[in-house]
Amino acid sequence: MNPKLFVSLTFIISWISIKFIPKEQVKKYTPVSILASLIASLVFVIVTDFGWWKLKKPVIPGLKSINVFYVFGPFFVGTIWIFKLVYKIGFVPYLIMNALIDSFFTYIIVPFAEKIGVGKSYMSKTSILSLMLSASLIIYGFQKWYESPSNVKTSITK
User: Fold this and answer.
1) Which of 28, 48, 100, 107 is the most exposed place for a label (fewest CB within 10 A)?
2) CA gyration radius, the chain
3) Crossing angle, helix 125-146 and helix 23-49, to 10 degrees?
4) How far apart are the C-alpha atoms of 10 and 69, rounded to whole Å?
5) What is the sign, positive or negative, of the torsion defined by CA atoms of 101, 34, 50, 67?
6) Which of 142, 149, 157 is nearest to 87 (CA)?
7) Is the Cβ–Cβ distance between 83 and 29 less than 8 Å?
8) Is the Cα dihedral 92, 95, 99, 100 positive or negative?
9) Domain ranges of the chain
10) Which residues are registered as beta bridge partners of 122?
11) Distance between CA atoms of 145 and 110, rounded to whole angstroms?
């Protein structure tokens, strides 16, 4: 499979899938998804600078440190999906869902992406999974903070 086709398809499919989430929930979980995408972008830059990851055929020429189509496609939309499906159930289901999805990404998607020539990871699978799970803890905490009563805007009536 062509690497650019694979990356483009995952981007397009993820954005098509968001049509199945109610607009209120998309709006509710967009801030945490933006934070997650920012974290993923920073991680991509850091691991590229340290030589732990190499994007072989970037979809956007000249942008070799961030896989923009992944960060703002499946990762962005996937974060909204995870929060929509399990956030209200509680922390443990959220953590289990993230562990399963992150494991699938680490042990299935990353090797497949390497095989078709999207990029090359020089990190251990354990390190990749640890980074992803750490990010999931940060964004869960952010969403809890974001929804806390002290952050809810109230209007004052006269």
Assistant:
1) 100
2) 17
3) 140
4) 8
5) positive
6) 142
7) yes
8) positive
9) 3-12+23-140
10) none
11) 32
Q: In the numeric block, which tokens belong to residue 7?
A: 């990356």
Provide the residue type at 88 as one letter: K
109-154 pLDDT, tens per residue?
Answer: 889 988 988 888 899 999 999 999 999 999 999 999 999 877 656 5
Q: How many CB atoms lie within 10 A of CB 22?
A: 9
- pLDDT tens-digit map of 11-53: 899 999 999 999 999 999 999 999 999 999 898 888 888 988 8
